[in-house]
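hi! just following up on the protien thing from before. the input was this:
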Amino acid sequence: MRSDSELLRVTICSFLERRYIAKETGRVAPMSAYPALAFCLFASSSLSNLSLNFINFPTKVVFRSCKLIPTMVIATIINKQKFASSEYVAALSISFGLIMFAAADWQLSPSFHPFGLVLVSLSVCADAVLPNVQEKLFTIGASRLEVIFYTNIITLIAMTAFTLWSGDFMATMKMAAQNTKLLHYIILYTGVSYIAISTYMQIIKRFGGVVAVLIATARKGMTLILSFCLFPKAFSWLYVNGAILVLGGLLMSSLMKQKMKRQPQSRLLESSSLKNYIETSNILKVSLFI
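and the predicted 3d structure came back as:
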């Protein structure tokens, strides 16, 4: 979950970069677009965290591993993007692979409290809407820094009010004041998280929300594999099957992208060949008449 303090740090960093490095002024996207983005960000974070009161962590991971599928569906609705059936197969493969990794780590019996499942499902839906709406703002000319700043500052206001009401805000401030080492970690994490968020937003702007979520999902898979390599665990075939599904899905997705890139080139070559053929035929006809 993105905490109140993280939102504050990201807001400050984006403001400073926007003001003093990018020299941006004004706003391209209408202000009315940002409350919806902020709501999605707030809902994704808070509902995901609240769900842990009713379900255990592995169950949450299983559900959030399926985020790629609703992201693709919402991209079709909001941004009118079309996906081939093979792309959905690749997405399902990656999602099921991550589910297998999570299932292999289950030490407790999975918790399936209905209300917890509703909360985490709504969190996934909000998380799927977020990159697609961001992509839509980018298409009308909004910059990466503009979207980051306005989304986070509105979410910060809402999150601050929520954490003040729940008492978490004061508890966090008290803990940070008492532990200087924690403060150092927070500062380090600020830089890393801001770079990660900025990179993620740049990917959305350049390649679209679905590609960004695909990369984020792949990153989760690679993290699990790296964790398994660095911290050996008891062997389970679920790890092997999960790795095969994740890597297979990523390979299929990569091959599909390459195929889609080659198709316009082949059409261009065919068009060029046809044009040359017609021109040659016309020259021959003229020469025959002469």
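The longest helix spans residues 237-289.
The two ends are 80 Å apart (CA to CA).
cheers
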